[in-house]
Amino acid sequence: MKVVTGVVGNDIHVVANRLIDLSLRARGFEVFNLGVNTYLEEFFDAAVETGAEILLISSLNGEAEGWGREVKLLKAKYKDLDNLIMMIGGNLVVGHGNAEDIVPKYKNYGFDLVCHQVDLNTGLDSLEEFIQKRNRK
Ligand code: B12
C-alpha cells in the first residue's frame, strides 16, 4: 500500500521521520516521504498525486494541535480521498496532556488512528490491524 508521510507544520524534528520511512518500507509499504516542515494541505496534495491510501503524519513539537482543526475542511475539499486512512503520532500537544483527552480530540478532527507518545512499532502494528479489519468488511 502507498503511504504519504511527513512532519506537519513548522516542525524540524527529523529523526522519527527517518525511522518511520525505514520501518514502513521494512513492512512492505510504498513510501512517499515529504520530510519535515510540511503543511497539512501538502499532505493531501501528495495523496492525490501518488494515489496513496494512507496519510501518516508526525508532530513532535506539538503544533499539530492547531493544524488538526483544518483536517475536516481539507477532507471536504479533496472529495476523492474519502477512503484515505488518516494517522497521526508523536507529541500531539504543546506541553503536557494525557491520551484520554488528546485521542478523542484528534478523532473529532477526522483522524482514524491517534498515537500520542506511542512508540513507533506499536503504532505501526495498530495501523496494520486497522487495515486488516477494514479489508474484512
Ligand atoms: C533532538 C531534539 C531537537 C533538535 C532537533 C534536531 C532535528 N533536526 O531533528 C533541535 C535542537 C533542533 C530541537 C529544536 C526544538 N525542539 Co526539540 N527535541 C529534541 C529531542 C531532545 C529529541 C527528539 C528526537 O529526535 N528523538 C528521537 C526520536 C526517535 O524519538 P521521537 O521524536 O520521540 O519519535 C518517536 C515517537 O514519538 C514516535 N513517533 C513519531 N511520530 C510518530 C507518528 C506515528 C503515527 C507513530 C505511531 C509514532 C510516531 O516514533 C519515534 C520512535 O518511537 C526532544 C526531547 C525528547 N527526548 O524526545 C525535544 C522536543 C521534541 N523538542 C521540543 C521543543 C519544544 C523544541 C523547540 C520548540 C525548542 C525551542 N524553543 O526552540 C525547537 C523546535 C523547533 C521547530 N521548528 O520544530 C519539545 C516538544 C515539546 C512539546 N511537544 O510540547 C521536546 C519534547 C523537548 C521537551 N521535553 O520539551 N529539538
Write the layout of secondary structure elements.
Blueprint (H helix, E strand, L loop, with lengths): L1 E6 L7 H12 L3 E4 L6 H11 L3 E6 L4 H4 L3 H7 L7 E6 L8 H11 L3 E4 L3 H17 L1
Parallel strand pairs: 1-2, 1-3, 3-4, 4-5
The chain binds cobalamin.
The site of cobalamin has 25 residues, from α1, β3, β4 and α6.
Account of the 3D structure:
- The protein has one domain (about 1-135): 3-Layer(aba) Sandwich (Rossmann fold), CATH 3.40.50.280.
- The protein contains six helices and five strands, in the order E-H-E-H-E-H-H-E-H-E-H.
- The protein has helices spanning about 15-25, 40-50, 65, 70-75, 100-110, 120-135, and strands at about 1-5, 30-35, 55-60, 85-90, 115.
- It is globular and about 35 Å long.
- It starts with a strand and ends with a helix.
- Cobalamin binds near residues 10, 62 and 87.
